Every structure is written in C-alpha cells, then in structure tokens.
Amino acid sequence: MAEKFSDAQIEAQLVALPDWSEAGGAIQRTFQFKDFAQSMAFVNSVAGAAEEANHHPDILVRYNKVTLTLSTHDAGGITAKDFALAKRVDGCAK
Fold first, then answer.
1. What's the total number of domains in the chain?
2. What Cα–Cα distance (Å) separates residue 20 from each residue in 1, 49, 85?
3. Which residue range forms the structural domain that includes residue 40?
4. Nearest 10 degrees: CA dihedral of 23, 24, 27, 30?
5. Residue 54, phi-psi category: left (phi > 0), alpha (psi -120 to 50), beta (remainder)
6. What is the dihedral of CA 41, 21, 88, 55, to 10 degrees?
7. So what's the pLDDT on residue 2?
C-alpha cells in the first residue's frame, strides 16, 4: 500500500505541479478545452493512463471543462501515486 503524504510533502510536490491544488485530502485540477469533443478526447486519454497505472481519478465533465480529483483511497489521502498520475495526465492535455 502507498504511504499517505504529510502536508509538507504535499506542498513540496505541488511546487512541480503549479496548476494542481490540494482540496480536502486530494489534489485537483480543472482543464479547459475548445469544446465538448476535445474534453471527451482528453477524458479518454486520461482513462487509458489511469488503467495503465491502476489508479483512477474522479472525473467531472462540464462541456469544455474537465476537473480531475486524485486521492489514494486505500491510504486515506494523497500519495506518490496521485502525483505520478497528475504528471502523466498533464501530458495528455498538451
């Protein structure tokens, strides 16, 4: 099982991911796209990355905006797995 990060560890990791923020025991980012089709293409690429990592974000789609929320449920908070997937999905948005 992954080990839950301390607040200091979370803050240190967020420095490398400035578009992400801590929100209620998870990390979160909202991505904005041209239209719904681009949002869904992004969601599909995130789904592939999540399956490969065996780590699945909560996904909220609002037309051209997609909000991802990452937390390691079995650890009860934020872990290295969350930051690894966050970095990977940032690449999916480019």
1. 1
2. 24, 18, 12
3. 7-92
4. -40
5. left
6. -90
7. 82
What's the confidence (pLDDT) of residue 40? 97
DSSP letters, 19-86, are T-EE-SSSEEEEEE-SSHHHHHHHHHHHHHHHHHHT---EEEEETTEEEEEE-BGGGTB--HHHHHHH
Do residues 61 and 43 make contact, with C-beta atoms less than 8 angstroms apart? yes
CATH code for position 84: 3.30.1360.20
pLDDT digits (tens, 9 = 90+) for 24-72: 999 999 999 999 999 999 999 999 999 999 999 999 999 999 999 999 9
Are 4 and 48 within 8 A, CB to CB? no
